[in-house]
Amino acid sequence: MLRKKPQWVVGVLVGCSWCIRVGFASCAEDYATFRIPCLQGTPNTFRPGAHSGDRKTMLGLLDEASQTIECCVGVLQGRVFEVGLKVGPYLHRLLHTYPTLAERLATILENNPAAIQYGMFCSPPSCEEETIGPLALQEVLLKRLARFSDEEAALAIPRGPRAGRRGWSNRSGQPKMEQPQELPEMETEVLVKETEVLEMETEVLVKELVSWDEIGVDFVIAGLGRCGTTSLHQSLVSHPNIAFTSPSEDYKIFAEGQSNRFLPTKQTARALQIRSSQRGQPGLLGLRNPAISLYPLSYYTIFLQERMKMILVLCDPLSRIEKQFMWFHYCHPDVEAAEARKDAIPRVLKSRNDCDPSIHALLSSRHSAWLRSQMIHLHLLELIKLFRHERLFVLHRASLNDRKTYSTLAEWLQAPAFPQTWNQMRRVNFRLGHRTDLCHNQTLQVLLKRRLAPEYAAIQFALRWQSRTFQQLAADRELMLHISRCDKEEELVEGPCGLYDLEEQGCPTW
Ligand SMILES: *[C@@H]1O[C@H](CO)[C@@H](O)[C@H](O)[C@H]1NC(C)=O
Ligand SMILES: *[C@@H]1O[C@H](CO)[C@@H](O)[C@H](O)[C@H]1NC(C)=O
């Protein structure tokens, strides 16, 4: 068996757990005695990232996370960290240094090399992202395995983020450096090359989490994509008391940017606060992210933040799906030109090698999963069930060129009225003319409208729901007759800016 310099290699390993012990001394010391009744169960939460589920499950998990923050930060003045263990690299290392221990741990860890197991931990204020991870994990792993010896405990410490990145914290200014303890004599068979050991990667991922209260967003434009959310954003941002987190779509907090988290990271909250303070303008803060309406975790999160309101812009489902299809699936005769015109999305086209010459393809089973993923009806009905009129406003694109819409919205948002002279309803981010073969073929339109029947029904229902506080007659008519862009001559010809609105000057402003 390979016995090449085992002492030295073990020295590196134990040496590192030594440096964790020393550098992490203050955090560890405080963490060991940080036990308060209201935290029962919380520091031991070590659940896999099962972050999708039905309403009850999701709301329950979100609520649990908020309670943890409230108890840990609000009551105990502690800090909450999300700690993830990279199972593959961790077990791989242990397997080389202490196989029996690795085997025992493998039985309690998800046996998927790519898995990262997450948990939420409450720590004393002395802990940092650099220090808490290994300690919290060690405790969890120790608790799971009965009769763990001290040597095993030392070996079981997962490697945290690179030591010394921000320097070890020695709170009182007292350097707490101790001499390394004598290395325990160990007859471990070391099968790993030294260089491998030296380059061992971080096995722990840590982010500090904060309360949603620190995300000072007052309202979101939550969707739908392709229905005029950009136009609405541009119109609202011209109100003197309304600002947005970003001039474009903001994915940092919700949808993909939420990264399956039940709480926002401190990093995200700080970045938002810095941008807000730079803007220096008091008033309402909006965020536009059309993916929210298709993303249950995000809209459930928003639902639980009572001060956050949600605006949805709806539109004709056929026109909307045609634009999506053009971007994702249509065969453009000249793909490069299409990319330049923004009719095709390069990264999507490069990741696949097929395309469809007709939107007829949407009727085939091949596209049924994609089509389902674009549909809004189930989410829309869920949102209406959850939110009341005070917190959800459903608009139709046909109402975006009506000044009354904006005065109603301002009032609903509890912002001052738009100035008398305000007239900045802009239509942006559109594409005129024929986008696919859809508008050339009426049979195809009828078939696709039939396929989209649940969309029409849900949107009609939503507008009827909204009509209790805000009537949208033009939209009602358009929906009832299933009028699509194919039925609007002015949509199919060039405008003053050709087919596009790319030029800022001289483009249509309704
Ligand atoms: C840590 O200790 C060093 C050495 O005594 C000291 O210079 C430094 O200010 C200390 N750092 C903190 C954060 O207290
Ligand atoms: C119109 O679409 C239908 C259904 O996809 C198809 O059968 C028909 O051939 C199309 N007509 C023309 C003129 O392309």
UniProtKB/TrEMBL annotation:
SUPFAM superfamilies: P-loop containing nucleoside triphosphate hydrolases. Residues 1-27 form the signal peptide. This is Sulfotransferase. InterPro entries: P-loop_NTPase (IPR027417). Keywords: Signal. Gene3D superfamilies: P-loop containing nucleotide triphosphate hydrolases (3.40.50.300). It comes from Durusdinium trenchii. Residues 163-185 are annotated as: Disordered.
